[in-house]
Amino acid sequence: LVSVPYNGFGYQLPLNGNAYCGFHTYWPANEHEFVGCRLNHPLEIGQQYYIEFNICSGSGGEFLPGVFTNNLGARLSMDSFSTNLPVAINNFAHVNYSSVITDTIIWIKVSGYFIADSTYKYIAFGNFFTNAMTDTIAFIASAGSSYYYIDDACVATNSKDCPASYNAIFDGWNESEFFLFPNPANDVLRIKMPNKIVRNLEVRNEMNFTIIEKQVSPNNSYFNLNVTELPNGIYMLTLHGIEKDFTGKFLVIHH
Prior knowledge:
about 260 residues; mainly beta; 4-stranded antiparallel sheet; 1 helix
């Protein structure tokens, strides 16, 4: 478990509710972490089931994992995993996401169907593939591990029975048309301003220190923010408005 929204692996708001979990999906010694729980009732053999969960990369904060991976998946089991019965890293998952997840802002939905071949009672989430079978992208050269947040997991016989996930993690993004791009940014971050009056913007680093404060013209549709002097990392940008504030997260990676 990690604290919300600031924690040792970055800054992230929950997709829904007040909390989420997190785990390492890659470590040089094939040491992975998993989260799991007991199902509400055992599965029925021969029945088709749908699994859904949402993933976002931490990859920042005090512990600075700095590696993105693929193979974010789910596996069912008859027994509860523990230190005495650890999860086997044997290149199998009932549902698996084979593409590398690099997004540190948007929650990515992972989902799929499978046919139950046992009366499974437990489910675990993580990377069930060895390091040799896992694709990685290191966005910080010295980093050697990865970390992902997980929220809104569901197992059902039909996808309609699972909570609908959404692509924006901040309430009001679609209504306000507030966007940060390109993300990651190298030299200039463009800000698509919301259709509300904004007074100023503030940028905070992963330690929650304010490092940039600027006045913003209320008539601007776009605002360009120079990030050439910012070190590589994850930052929070807040637009302080008269009616409400708008907050977004962006990544700086200098080529």
